[in-house]
Write a structure and sequence with these properties.
This protein is of the alpha/beta class and about 400 residues long. The chain contains 14 helices and 18 strands. It has helices at about 15-25, 50-60, 60-65, 90-95, 105-115, 160-165, 235-245, 255-260, 290, 300-320, 320-340, 345-350, 355-365, 375-385; strands at about 5-10, 30-35, 45-50, 75-80, 85-90, 100-105, 120, 125-130, 135-140, 145-150, 150-155, 175-185, 195-200, 205-210, 215-225, 265-275, 280, 285. Helix 7 packs antiparallel against helix 8. Bound molecules: flavin-adenine dinucleotide (FAD).
């Protein structure tokens, strides 16, 4: 007997549909509630690394991921006049078969297509959760209330389920003293599978092109000392903040800022991790960014969501008591989450050094050859973290 038979999942991005896939495989019913009116397509490129690739293979989607891969061929660091100061050949450090890049929307679509037995409820959200001992009664903005055996928050960094079950975000959030913005702009530089980036101390401005995506992406990253509430302010104020913070940066940054105004998908947020002592409360648990978001600086959020979904479903299938199953999920997943969250700090330091000396030193090290450089060491660490879980240990 399984611990649960009827699961409600909040969030239809990566973690939610991946969990639905594995619950279906274990014969457990699931419904997914998503606040957006439909699956979101396109988006930025994300990574599947290490054990997440094994999970994708077991899901039967790995060949399709390969067909849609958006692997970047060249990364160039340029000066204020656009002259190349250093470069990275991503293939020289990463192990190509253990690190795959794909558009977030493509991965969501591939996973979603495997979950034909799952009910999706778009355009709705959970408004309340009432634990009744042997179930959780959920109320919704749109649908009628319903009782489930388990509720899973797979609704991202600012998780609604986490807010309802565990309270406000503040105690669980680790701010990495940075803001990030990303949005679609025209591909003026004519890039082809390339990232072109410029640094000044504490700032990183980049344009990159991924095949299968419209135009190019503008990406702005700023390291700061003091946190403000700009990530919670209206979009117009965030754009004004970026113009002020990046306006004097040189290179293509002025054009990126001009084009930001018309971007259809402007994204701005603090660079934040989620760290919690426990991911479960009674019959409510958290998965992916909602429970252990590692921040975009780790590049491991997608892989954590994929592996977490696999391990959570397996634990629910193997134990006949939800508390034991959720404890087993945490025991196996926590070291993996911790190892991959640890990647974010060196990732941030590498991308946006705080001083001119740091930028020069990084570029010099890049020239020394990828395998000798800071990038080589960082990449080794990243790949090691991405492999640091035994998917079969629970069998
Ligand atoms: C700018 C940026 C760059 C990134 N780069 C990378 C990268 O290079 N590599 C990488 O691996 N990862 C990257 N990530 C992180 C990656 O996108 C996430 O870690 C990953 O998407 C986590 O998946 P998730 O399903 O847990 O959460 P999310 O993808 O955040 O999905 C949450 C879902 O929940 C839905 N939702 C939210 N609130 C509610 C609600 N109230 N009710 C119902 N549904 C709700 C949302 O609409 C969304 O569909 C990046 C993230 C950002 C923002």
């Amino acid at each position: 007997m399984t611990a649960v038979d009827n699961v409600l999942i909040s969030g239809a991005s990566i973690a939610g549909p991946a969990l639905a896939h594995w619950l279906e495989r274990h014969g457990i019913r699931a419904a997914v509630v998503e606040k957006a009116p439909a699956l979101r397509d396109g988006g930025y490129a994300i990574d599947l690394r290490g054990k997440a690739i094994n999970v994708a293979e077991r899901m039967g989607i790995l060949d399709a991921v390969h067909e849609r891969t958006t692997q970047i061929a060249r990364i160039s660091m340029v000066d204020a006049d656009g002259r190349r100061k250093a470069g990275i050949d991503p293939g020289a450090t990463s192990s190509p078969d253990r690190s795959l890049e794909i558009l977030r929307g493509d991965l969501v679509d591939l996973i979603h297509k495997t979950t034909t037995g799952t009910e999706y409820r778009f355009g709705d959200t959970i408004t309340g959760l009432d634990q009744t001992g042997d179930g959780v009664r959920a109320t919704f903005a749109e649908a009628d209330p319903q009782t489930f055996d388990l509720v899973v928050g797979a609704d991202g960094l600012h998780s609604n389920v986490r807010g309802i079950a565990f309270g406000p975000e503040a105690p669980y959030r680790r701010f990495l003293n940075s803001y990030i913005s990303i949005f679609t702009i025209p591909n003026h530089l004519g890039l082809d599978r390339e990232v072109r980036a410029h640094n000044t101390p504490g700032r990183f401005s980049a344009v990159y092109h991924s095949p299968r995506a419209e135009g190019a992406k503008g990406l702005l990253l700023q390291r700061i000392d003091e946190e403000s509430d700009i990530d919670r302010r209206p979009r117009e104020e965030q754009m004004a903040y970026l113009r002020e913070a990046f306006g004097d940066m040189g290179w293509e940054t002025g054009r990126i800022l001009d084009e930001m105004e018309d971007a259809p998908d402007f994204y701005f947020d603090s660079v934040t991790q989620i760290k919690m002592d426990t991911w479960s409360k009674g019959r409510v648990t958290l998965l992916g960014d909602a429970g252990y978001g590692p921040s975009p600086m780790s590049g491991q959020g997608t892989s954590l969501a994929m592996v977490g979904a696999y391990l959570l479903a397996e634990a629910l299938a193997q134990h006949d008591d939800p508390a034991t199953a959720l404890a087993a999920y945490e025991t196996r997943m926590r070291p993996y989450a911790v190892a991959n969250q640890a990647i974010a700090d060196p990732g941030l330091a590498f991308l946006a050094p705080r001083t001119a000396f740091g930028i020069g030193a990084r570029n010099l090290l890049l020239k020394a050859g990828p395998l000798l450089s800071a990038l080589g060491r960082f990449d080794t660490k990243l790949l090691k973290a991405s492999e640091a879980v035994d998917l079969d240990a629970g069998k």
